[in-house]
Amino acid sequence: MAGELAKEETAVTKVKVLKKNNVKPHKPLGTKVCQLVTFDLPYLAFYYNQKLMTYKGVENFEETVEKLKDGLALVLEDFYQLAGKLGKDEEGVFKVEYDDDMDGVEVIVSVAEGMEVADLTDEEETTKFQDLIPCNKILNLEGLHRPLLAVQLTKLKDGITMGLAFNHAVLDGTSTWHFMTSWGQLCCGSTSISVPPFLERTKARNTRVKLNLSKPSEAPEHANSATTNGDVTANVDPPLRERVFKFSESAIDQIKSKVNANPPEGPCTPFSTFQSLSAHVWLAVTRARQLKPEDYTVYTVFADCRKRVDPPMPESYFGNLIQAIFTVTAAGLLLSHPIEFAAGMIQKAILKHDAKVIDERNKEWESSPKIFQYKDAGVNCVAVGSSPRFKVYDVDFGWGKPESVRSGSNNRFDGMVYLYPEKNGGRGIDVEISLEVNAMERLDKDKEFLIEA
Predict the structure, then answer these.
(1) For residue 102, pLDDT beyond 90
(2) What is the pLDDT of residue 164?
(3) Which of left, alpha, beta for 147 (phi over 0: left; psi -120 to 50: alpha)?
């Protein structure tokens, strides 16, 4: 698969794109069609979901690229939807469609002259990532004419980066890391993946929702939102600062112990690690924002519903099977109570989100579909994506674990949080936060938030 030399170079990071190819499934599969369902459709106006994985000590870049392409062609035999495109049937129902004549996954090969792994593993900023990850500010709706997965492989002085852009209307985080782990297995010599994807989305929800969305060509380049009447509008975002805060096992234990020391009255199960850390982050961000006591603040969790729906879906369900869970209170009320108050609200909202609530939410949305902006998670919100349960540091293509896993610049807003497990495999958690610049400066100095290991 030869690609034309593209002498593209950016002034900031000096990333040169060498060639662009397309990778298809290794063998012909014919024509495949899969309807998008209610769990998928709200994300059409999010941007592509971006990840950057950085690996050290990779030898022979050209051979590595070909090995990765070969493994990608094999894994796409099972995950063929990622090699397809979005489509709409005659009634306006969105679908993923694949046939052997489609281009497949886009693979970009580049080199970052003078850049080292250490330049990409610090705890600040994401602007340096933008030339290493494809599909910046590209709406998922554009999957009607763009690849649903784009991969950029960049040679560093002492390693390689893998920039990934997944169409979020097609898959969630659980499916993303299932795919990545499977790709790594095949690159490491496995003849088949250990867990094939469950591709029957309509088993989770079989309701045909008709949407009339504007064509991507009609949308502004940096559009942030779309609605079912066809409007796509642009918004100007405030300057943000990104930072990764690393909470060790000891710090996590301290937070969890504090939250569970004085449980609230009434029925209450012990607070989980996630609920404890969520309360800790929510309180700290609210302090840093210096909100008025009467200002509302929202904590939003994108919860995996695979085991919540009836009947339950397998962990290998491929697609989106997440829903946002909202917890709302006044900033003054939140900050005037001990931390278990916040944890209790979060726990209650999560436990309440059962099959009945999910079904009611789906029916309500289907009766009046709304295609959300990526930042419609609530006023003064803290919204949690990703999960420390995702074994992102186990994605091994034959040269060991990644040095770092970070999120790209897409779908970031004031209050967006990504959680990742710590690199060494322990119970520590890395908390990647985007905040307005002044609030981040205050958070960075908050000793109550920055627990010593």
Answers:
(1) yes
(2) 98
(3) beta
